Amino acid sequence: MKFFSAVISICLVMTLAACSDPGDQQSPSTNASTSDDDQRIAGVKAEINRLADGYDYDAAIKLAKDDASDELNSMARGLEEEKEQTTPWEHPEKIPHLFFHSLIVDTDRAFDQDSRSGGYEDYMVTQKEFSQILQELYKRDYVLVNPEDFAALNKQKKMEYRKIMLPKGKKPLVLSVDDLSYYEYMDGDGFASRLVLDDHGKVRNEYVDAAGKKQLGAFDVTTMVDDFVGEHPDFTYRDARGLVAMTGYNGEFGYRTSPSQYPKNKNLAKDQKDATAIAEAMKNTGWVFASHSWGHLNTGSVSMARLQSDTKLWKEEVEPIVGPTDQYIYPFGADIAQTNTYSGARYEYLKSQGFDYFYGVDGTTESWMQQVGGYQRQMRINIDGLQFAKEKAGDRPVLANFFDVDKVIDPARKALDRSKKSTKP
Ligand SMILES: [Zn+2]
Prior knowledge:
Layout: H1 4-13, H2 16-19, H3 36-53, H4 57-66, H5 70-73, H6 75-84, E1 86-88, E2 97-100, H7 107-110, H8 117-123, H9 127-139, E3 142-144, H10 147-150, E4 151-153, E5 159-161, E6 165-167, E7 171-178, E8 194-197, E9 203-208, E10 214-217, H11 221-231, E11 242-246, H12 268-285, E12 287-291, H13 304-317, H14 319-322, E13 327-329, H15 345-352, E14 357-361, E15 369-372, E16 375-382, H16 385-392, H17 405-408
Parallel strand pairs: 2-7, 2-16, 3-7, 7-11, 11-12, 13-14, 14-16
Antiparallel strand pairs: 1-6, 4-5, 8-9, 9-10, 15-16
Bound molecules: zinc ion.
């Protein structure tokens, strides 16, 4: 229901045909004499179809039933039938999670043999690769879900799995993107430079090409996923998008919003305001923010004093922008425990700071989750050059069910001379 008013208003200015479900063969034709009510009904119908495409049948049925129009009321029955075709996902404790860093847009600049090129090849994927990966995931019937779709705390503050209701054959998948900060070190290396809101309030990337020309568009993970879902509404479960892990030391989304780090930033207040508006728009779209610590800490091994001061700084500088969160994504995948369950001071502290969901990295297993007491824990598969190389070497491959590495890999990777050392972002 989040999009209801926005969609209606957008639909009113679009042609009816473009606004209706692409799969709907009975699309009403455009007609100069179309009345305001017909336009309104077409707008609501499009929203009902969008909700149903995203498996939110209850919301779609309610919208159809509550409307004054008989035409919309009559949609409810078909929607009830569609809803009956869904079943709970049979393995709530086996949901895979893929994660990415910001995308390389211009491989010539990223792989220009400077000291950062090796790191980019190891830890990033290119825009071309990501576009292929999205199409492959969609073709293989994956559907994006968010943490609260599969697990939540009950009244006794105990974590429980939730039922994900999907049509037969569809499979849930969690996606995340780390460090969406457009760090200073990436400047000029062929990445997007920041996120911005366009004239319609939609989140876009600003990208400066090699010739210095500024472009607005989808040049990174979140904007590309948003566009893909726009074209394929059945790729998301009830508007889920994924997680976005944020640090604080270089600010947020390309805005240097950290007062402790940028005390001389004359635009500090405006940067904070702009970044907050972007976070708000992303949350409304279905993105969930996670703490990635303020200073990209090794959470598993830093001193407790450092962990506490860093968490305090995240809450002072990042939380006002992205909002409070119960999600914690370990930087470097540095978890606070091995496969054993959580206990002890470090866990108690993170839990006391409001974190209930924790994410590590394990690129050798398709899905790994642990639910004990008041926490949910999930391992993520790193999708990057290292994983591609591991996969191609046949070393504990995990990607076959998601996509074919040979099919998605960017030939530009071959051009890079890897005799030079890489630095981890
Ligand atoms: Zn990170």
